[in-house]
Write a structure and sequence with these properties.
Layout lengths: L19 H9 L2 H23 L3 H4 L14 H12 L3 H11 L1 H8 L2 H5 L5 H35 L4 E2 L5 E2 L1 H18 L1 H13 L3 H18 L31 H27 L5
Antiparallel strand pairs: 1-2
């Protein structure tokens, strides 16, 4: 057997182990992945049915102006309503599930030690797991957006965006703004995703990693309603979660958008660094 100067067997290249397409194929075959994407397709259809059934005179008499009131104005409006309805819970759980189930599930099944013995370098394994979780999470977000856009367009027409304050945004401009909203959400939700990823390296229970991250975000969301906390709330991980709605303004006020992106990336970097630091020292043989 030929051995390299590093002690590895000839032909062994760390960068070729656990390639991302291989990891993605493994994840797409799991029932939880299939279930999540099935829900992403079904949710807009269920909401369309609910809006159609609730389109009575009493329902139209609501005096408050919000995205619900204009949800049936066009397919774009319906898509905005779907994003608004899923931001605080549904998408949070999806990101937490894909990121939190990465390492903890492998440890629970006992396959983590065998993956590292393949041998896959420890840090490469974690990088590939992180990348696969990101791809799946963003794909789920894009799926619910595209299904809502197409199904909403068929149900309510492919028209312009009608804002709650009566301003109309042309369809082309509306699609660009929608892309910006989805991009913002993809970055903002990295906070809960990377928190779940860190917890996934700490525990062998996937439910603890997923539940712990979701619970943490809910706590901060509740604290965000306490006005006595003042400017401290601006630094919560849930701050600016609805900043993407600023893209409906004309002209667009980008202050909260920039702050939300930078703050989310900082939180994501910290949680990711903590995950790599803990996993580098973790005993995975027991």
């Amino acid at each position: 057997m030929t051995v390299q100067s590093t002690g590895a067997v000839a032909g062994y290249r760390p960068e070729r182990t656990l390639r991302l397409p291989v990891e993605l194929r493994r994840q797409f075959k799991r029932r939880r992945t299939i279930g999540v994407f099935a829900l992403m397709v079904a949710l807009p259809l269920v909401l369309i049915a609910a809006l159609q059934l609730g389109a009575s005179e009493d329902a139209q008499a609501n005096g408050r102006l919000n995205l619900v009131d204009v949800a049936t104005a066009s397919g774009l409006n319906f898509t905005l309503f779907v994003l608004f309805a899923t931001t605080t819970f549904f998408l949070v759980v999806v990101y937490a599930l894909f990121f939190g189930d990465t390492v903890a599930s492998e440890a629970q099944w006992g396959s983590l030690r065998y993956a590292l013995a393949t041998p896959v370098p420890r840090m490469r394994l974690l990088r590939q797991k992180w990348a696969a979780a990101l791809v799946l999470s963003v794909a789920a977000l894009l799926t619910v957006t595209l299904v809502a856009l197409v199904a909403g367009g068929i149900a309510f027409g492919f028209g312009d965006i009608q804002t709650p304050i009566g301003i109309s945004i042309a369809q082309g401009d509306g699609l660009l703004r929608l892309a910006g909203m989805v991009g913002y959400l993809a970055v903002h939700l990295l906070v809960v995703g990377t928190l779940a990823f860190w917890l996934s390296t700490v525990t062998d229970a996937p439910l603890a990693a997923v539940g712990g991250s979701v619970f943490t975000m809910f706590v901060f969301a509740i604290l965000d309603q306490v006005e006595q906390l003042g400017s401290i709330r601006d630094y919560f991980p849930t701050a600016n979660e609805f900043a993407w709605t600023d893209l409906l303004q004309t002209p667009v006020d980008s202050g909260d958008l920039y702050r939300g992106v930078i703050q989310s990336l900082v939180y994501a970097a910290v949680f990711t660094a903590l995950a790599f630091r803990h996993f580098a020292r973790r005993d995975v043989t027991s």
